[in-house]
Each structure stands twice: as C-alpha cells, then as structure tokens.
Amino acid sequence: MFDIILNYSLRYIVNPKQSINTLKQYTKLLNCQIYSALYG
Hints:
The chain is mostly helical. Helix content is about 90%, strand content about 0%. It has one domain. It is built from 2 helices and no strands. The two termini are about 25 Å apart.
C-alpha cells in the first residue's frame, strides 16, 4: 500500500494534473471494491 502512495507522490511531483486524474480513478476503483465488499 505504501508503494502505491509513494508512486503517486512521485508522479504528482512530475505531473500534478495527470496524477490528480489517476488518483480520482483509483479512488473510484477503491470505492467500487468497498461497495461490492459491503453490499455485494
């Protein structure tokens, strides 16, 4: 998990706008997994 956070931190430094989009997609994916774990 920390590897992922570190990756995003490094990407954010390199390209903030793209990283925000990637982070949004990742959050969406995580929310889907949590949702299906709770209600699936």
